[in-house]
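Shipment paperwork, digital attachment
Item: protein structure file
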Amino acid sequence: MTFNHFLQALNASLRNAKSPTQHAFHIVYVPNRTQRSATHEILVGLGNWLSQDKPVKHLGVCLNNKGTAERFGKDHQYPSVTDLVLDPPPELLQQWCTLAGAPADPGELLARFTLVVEDVGPDSCFGVLCWLAFMCGVEPGELLKEPMRRWVDAVRRWEMGGVCDDPFSSWAALLSALSHSYLPAAKASSSQTKEAAAPDLSEAWREALRLTVALLRGGCDPEAVPAQPQLPAYGRAIAFMKSEQRDYIETLPQALRLQLLVPMAGTGDARQLLVDAYFQSS
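Attachment content:
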């Protein structure tokens, strides 16, 4: 299967995922999950690789870049989930292929697993997309050359710094805004009891993947996304981002403003950056 054929098949599966006659789409939001994966699970950004210095035997798929160097050796230290998926340790790749079986339609593959997630971030979303592509038979070389390399670089930059030149044309910023639009408001979540159900992120994941697939199929540069009025997910992301921008502008005059010296990601705290910050009471 070529990458373009994979994107077309994934788009069809996501579009029809709500229909009871089509493949299901299972998402479980457990931000602090540490135990091993079950055979039917894909942990995304979650799960431990070691327990009391002994390897954890995952029965399912664990897509977590944190702790891989300690488990698989110093040559397997990854800055993102996406990097792990694109160049996994051989034993991990073998396990994935065994669990996934023969290359299949992405919708069929998704229906066999439950995604256990900590967020709906760009790295999580793109990492899962790349994993599905590999398991559906897309040649690894297709995901390691242009234009895909630009997307991998965009994921890595966002994961390391969380900044961009223009948030309104950055895929990573747009996807983050889209994801946050599905989360309960801060005031609402703070008033919930500990027994309250976790938010259902199925729709957020579905729309995040659909937006990403649409931009990939359209040949968009992830750092210079043109207006996409035909995509409801894009419109929702822009609306949420503008609302956040308006709130920031309106509250800034009354906020406490400070400058903070913060460690830079990926430097082991060796380098620091001076940033402007403001604190707003909720």
